[in-house]
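Input chain follows. Return structure tokens only.
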Amino acid sequence: MPKAKINGINLYYESSGEGYPLIFTHGFSASHLMWKPQQPLTNNYRLIIYDARGHGESDSPSSANQYSADICVEDLYQLTKVFNIKKAVFGGLSMGGYLSLRFYLKHPELVSALIVMDTGPGYRNPTRMIEWNASQEEVAQRLEKDGINVLAIQAQSGGRREISLKQNPIGLAHMSRKVVAQHDSLVIENLDKIKVPTLVLVGEKDTAFLQATDYMTNTIPGARKFIIPNAGHAANIDNPQFFNKMILDFLHNIGL
């Protein structure tokens, strides 16, 4: 299995197809396997996917100090060096979308476009942030106490549940409290500084993220939004044909 030694851990990755590179980051408790429905994109592009630390086939460090949003962004940056990437389209779903936005703010020179899927940009409101972080701490504690079945039971049938069952509960617990939880307002406060073409996608049934989608679309200069019909939070899995078409149309329209 292809792995790279990055920031002291082994990071699992896959690369398929040829052409302009697309680098996708999965959501919390998922893995590179969630992008299987996007394999048709490799007919036109090079698709690079990977498992974030604490997920899938990548290492899950035991110390919580080895997890943060910025550490995950640095992992992604080091992965671009493995592939000698000079410019790429960066995208992700939920946690992965947030990390892609944060990556742009750290390394805008590497990003030619963004694809943000079923994602929230974080919180300005301290009360909302405290409430969100409390919910993520609860998830972390349940994972530490009861194991991976906490998430697997909640996951829908099929591939998503199978992905959850293969996760390391300690790695996910650290990711929940250190990465999914919000520890600053960097992303939401700088959306208006994004200078690259941005596509914002959301499943029509993903009600928890519809408002965030509208906010990002209205705040990121020139951002384009599409609602994926018959889809929930995992919109890329629920309606992959429509989802992939929106991505291909977007990339074609920006000349990639």
